[in-house]
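The following block was generated as part of the benchmark described in Methods. Ligand: uridine 5'-triphosphate.
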Amino acid sequence: MQGGKVAKAARSARDTAGSCFRTAVVPAAGLGTRFLPATKTVPKELLPVVDTPGIELVATEAADSGAQRLVIVTSPGKDGVVAHFVEDLVLEGTLAERGKFHLLEKVRKAQALLDVASVVQEEPLGLGHAVAQVESVLDDDEDAIAVLLPDDLVLPCGVLDVMSRVRRKRGGSVLCAIDVPKDEVSAYGVFDVAPVPDAVNPNVLRVNGMVEKPALADAPSTFAAAGRYLLDRAIFDALRRIEPGAGGELQLTDAIALLIAEGHPVHVVVHRGSRHDLGNPGGYLRAAVDFALEREEYGPALREWLHHRLGPDWDPQLTATD
Ligand code: UTP
């Protein structure tokens, strides 16, 4: 598409200066079991947040942070995820003929964002295994990749820009964390961190290790992993050297732990905004409502309906402690 090419060129001219990665990886080969039966035929990554699939929101974030290429890790039969980023001439022709130009613009957005490639993970053998599939499509001079989990909406966007700055200054790999309430730590991978003595930004911390789903008493901090990673190319070598864990799965966090143990610098940026977990129906619904409330065409009516639905006696304090 002419418009798409112009948009991509404009982004690359702006971005090559700022970001320290060209390729953003979106692993989308998981089974999505928490969303069954919907995910029997519809990939979780295509479920819409209002009207836009989660993966398009994440691809937009990647493009805005300087990525030029999106590599989607898919599984056999999940072709629809990549098709979302491919021009559909029949649909576009029909919309143009009917004068539906606002819809045409919406449909063309995804394909104009960045160049899209895919690799196939034949079996869902874990996030680490999914990331490992990407090495073969990287250019020789790419020394880092960004990984964005399409389940995670980290808002407002922009944390990857901060992560890029941290890598440029301190090298190595940079991860993203959110500060969660103490009673929720057991649901997350939690970072063991130390302050960086010369850091100007107090949200940049050195990572000494990570504990998966710790009991509250064993949690080294309240900083939980959010789905954004800026990984040095050394991650691929580490992924080759770790052992698969439960269910034969290769864990990305084990490879990161190996890099830390070998002295590779790993830092975390604590993101002070909000986050939505699209990977489970409860989190997904919250995201959909949150996004819809912000939309001019749906927000006011939804707000009014929620008000009626919850009733005048609804008390958030009571509900939270019930
Ligand atoms: P999740 O564990 O959240 O996704 O993995 P899942 O496995 O699809 O979901 P459930 O737990 O069965 O409901 C985080 C991300 O990593 C990808 C998933 O697609 C998701 O985007 N992933 C996970 C892979 O690409 N391959 C895997 O083997 C596992």
